[in-house]
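[Automated response] Your request has been received and processed.

Submitted sequence:
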Amino acid sequence: MKRLVLLLSVFLVACSNDNTPDVSSDKAAAEAVQALQQSGSVDGKALYAACAACHGAQGEGNPGLHAPSLANQQDWYLERQLLGFRSGVRGSHPEDGYGAQMQAIAKTLADDAAVKAVVAYIADFKAKPAAKTLEGNIKRGADYYSNLCGSCHGPAAEGNEKLQSPALAGVDDWYLLKQFNHFRDGIRGADQTDRYGYQMGMMGKTLPNAEIANDVIAYIPVSYTHLRAHETSLHL
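Generated structure:
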């Protein structure tokens, strides 16, 4: 019965927009649920095998399945999000079809130790910048980023663990835009028990329009390049 409920939560999402998983994404998510349910392992590598179907063998992501890259994200943030999916704080909105998929998958992780194990395995993946897919007014995006985003996410979008603000640099731009829209529209961060998501829900309303949001996110890969160049110079 538990397995049936989890699978239904993947498929029965009441929405009719680009947040609705397609057949290939549904199939991959259902296979991940089944693989995790059949695995009694607490080994991170074994657990990640189910995740690889969507997110790739090295966490590189798969835009065709709406699965973001994981390789450039901090382990503490990945752990927080998996726990959020697992508890139902994230992925419960009826218009968040892909969130519902992740919620069903995360709930098959047996306990917090399993979450930590799979995150520790992901943390060993080699960081690689995600492909740039968005175009925009980079100068305007940089100005808005500096004024509204940089104080939490860092001047080069490198993130700030003390503020619990994740890195944005290196993460898929299409995914960042989708999540920003979710925060703005109340699909993500509406639950006040999700402290940091709720903060971003309020921040999502500060950008004047969708075009400027696009500009900000189009700028972030540029900030990633600046960050890597700075890190390289420090080691010369």
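Summary generated for your ticket: The longest helix spans residues 210-234. The CA atoms of residues 2 and 108 lie 10 Å apart.
If you did not submit this request, please reply to this message.
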